[in-house]
Amino acid sequence: MQVIGVYASDWNRRLTKPAYILGISAYYHDSAAALLRDGEIIAAASEERFTRIKGDAAFPARAVPYCLKEAGIGAAELAAVGFYDNPILKFERILETCLGVAPRGFRQFLMAGPLWIKEKLWTDRELRDSLGDYQGELLYSEHHESHAASAFFPSPFREAAILTMDGVGEWATASFGVGRDADIQLLKEMRWPDSLGLLYSAFTYYTGFKVNSGEYKVMGLAPYGEPKYVQLIYDHLMDLKADGSFRLNQEYFGYLAGLTMTNDRFHRLFGGPPRVPESKLTQREMDLARSVQEVCEEVMMRMARTVHRETGLKQLCLAGGVALNCVGNGRLLREGPYERIWIQPAAGDAGGALGVAQLIWHRRFGKPREVDGRTDAMRGACLGPSFTDSEIESFLRRTGAVYRRLERPCLLQATAELLAQEKIVGWFNGRMEFGPRALGGRSILGDPRSPRMQAQMNIKIKFREGFRPFAPSVLRERVTEYFELGCDSPYMLLVAPVRKERQIPMDADHQGLWGIEQLNVVRSDIPAVTHIDYSARVQTVERDISPDYYDLIREFDRQTGCGVLINTSFNVRGEPIVCTPRDAYTCFMRTHIDALVLGPYLLHKAEQPAWSETSEWQKEFQLD
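RESULT FIELD:
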């Protein structure tokens, strides 16, 4: 197993032009592939989008061919292939953990050990078998190094501090370092089993949501609660230091020796067993969510201040699963010591595929890095598959769908009119996004002015919990008219307050409402995207990145005077975001979406042939 090392002078002679580098993440969750051509990001996609298995951890057997096809090459033409973590170190951690808690950890080892021995310790062989005729080197990085590379190298900064936070890689659970030009250096790390990501996941599990996919539900639920349990967390679960480092009291957790995140002692501390998934949410879950969210934000703030103090740098790059906590990111931007922050849009494990490819290009091949100080290298995260007009029309004909092809101005006008009439529109345009957010490529859109829209989209379209907030997409130049946000937020990873003059204070009739009762209270003139704490998860849209989506919002603004649209991912609960025209049409027909835009084609639900499926299809996707 060859770890990515320092630049070797003979690599320049060995490189062909152009040079393609493939990065892979797999075997834990959210497997993905990413491809560079002479350092430029050409393609990147998660395996789940192709297999339709949420968080698919298998080798990206479909994502890899997609990347190669996008570049028009075969595997034999790759200059290098990289894997995003070090399986040997990871197995070392698993083995030492199981032995360290023996005999309690024996059951866990019986389940995990053979799998690692059989499959994951033979990653070289597995990768080569899957890549077919690739005969070159396989290179490995460490997990948090991949995260750090994905955070810094695509950023618009020439130099920046780097902070990574997640559940666990090999041993590290958080790390910080610096990036300068074409080099990154990690300086310090926190280690297993002390993990902010796992603390948050423990509360995700305890409040009845699925670990590794339901954490954002906890974040969305938090504003409905009170921070009643914060001190209990500090007194019993976590010894938090001023610099953001901490120790977790493992007497309350089950992930070291057992098969669950929490144990009976944790349950007694917080007043009962975990919530049964899909059962009614109570005020206790809301208060627990608020409490762990506040603790998470405090740790993020302390870590970021420490990194600033030790590096002296004014710009910060973030990655790792915890960097998807957009509420914490927003607070860090508003209250932290940094002038600018950039967050990798695929901050979780999928982004590690991109990070390892960039490490190979800059560190192994010794290639320089070009930055302009403003524009990042992610292409708006539009790095997935696209489909030609003829491919889309061929599918529609085979399906028997009823559709109209419209010229672009007419299509935008008609779509904006539908939205202004409070119709819900599926929007399938251009390349699919890389990362967990729909950014105008695979989106469901609605009118943010409607007080009914949040409930309708949650219950009738997404088939999910009604408390979940929706995000606004806003014209970049209009963002300060709606939100207290003084920077770009192209990847929907920052939460900001709705401007005071747009807020509607709760009147006397609503003052006594508590918890989920507050959901349907109108809080602003864009109520469908205003959360109960008057915040919103903002996406700023630029024409250079998403011309069709930008012009649609602008047309909606022309018709209504509102430069904002609701933007939520094009999927139902438990389903990966749609990838193909077939995925989009199927989701359209299974839900109460009123209209569908597939490239230049407009479809109305009322005109479609009868859909023969029953509600049994909802069992197809595992609930998150």
